[in-house]
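From: lab user (bench 3)
To: helpdesk
Subject: output format question, protein + guanosine-5',3'-tetraphosphate

Hello, I'm new to running complex predictions and I'm not sure whether the block I got back is the full result or only part of it. Here's what I submitted:
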Amino acid sequence: MTIQWFPGHMAKARRQVTEKLKLVDIVIELVDARIPLSSRNPMVDEIVQQKPRLVLLNKADMADPEMTKKWIEYFKEKGFTALAVNAQGGTGLQEIVKSSKIILSAKFERMKAKGMNPRAIRAMIVGIPNVGKSTIINRLAKKNIAKTGNTPGVTKAQQWIKVGKELELLDTPGILWPKFEDQEIGYKLALTGAIKDTILNLQDISVYGLRFLEKHYPERLKNRYNMDEIPEEIVDLFDIIGKQRGCLMAGGEINYDKTSELIIRDIRDERLGKLTFDLPENLSKYDRD
Ligand code: G4P
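Helpdesk reply: Thanks, we reran it on our side. This is the complete output you should expect:
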């Protein structure tokens, strides 16, 4: 799903999340484990405010496991509980209720002390498009909830999904926008498939991907494209890959667009292994403090 975000859409999205916040005890913020900061909404702290929050690093099955550990530490230092999950495969999801209970234990103790009846924890999912919100809701609901479009004139009542006895989840997630003004973030969103019909130039995305691999995962780059050494000039690297994979035009010239598409597809489809593009050791650029 590609959404074109305009100021009006952002204001509406923010309003919708703010409205639903009143209904829940906790916000479950979904990020992509491969880009735990680039896949965050730039204003999420401001929007969610003091509401207790659990951060889920989803698609952890596709991310570099060593980096995921570091990211969990990073969030912990920021005062958030973070869990690595795979909504598609269902791994790690059983921790959601456990962690939510711990985060909310003081609140629920206070409610109990006031003589209020025990009730399930109420939660809502928020995150940017494609981060896996629907997948996780369906998984937790253990059934397929149809995605509801905007049908004019039909107001859908808010539905709660029971997740066991201890958690209730709003059936519609809060959809927030990514920080797409930053070109580097744009490349990372494209390389992880968060933006598909991309407005960014394919060659620029693939150059960014190749440079990143060259710096952080050089052995994988060499292995994938059968190279002893990585050439210094990026055009030479394109030539090697393009020639090897038959991305040629009539006359035998390298088709750079086709080569770019192939590189991007290889990265998205894990042909270069489990990759994490946001690096915790390189945080100053992203830190919002
Ligand atoms: P959204 O509601 O936040 O927009 O995201 P959605 O659940 O639709 O998920 C987007 C894509 O990501 C889906 O693939 C979904 O299967 C995949 N996905 C979600 N969670 C995980 C996960 O933990 N691991 C992996 N590997 N994939 C996950 P799709 O519909 O097939 O779209 P696509 O494959 O064409 O991107």
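A quick orientation on your result: The first helix runs from residue 7 to 21. Let us know if anything else is unclear.
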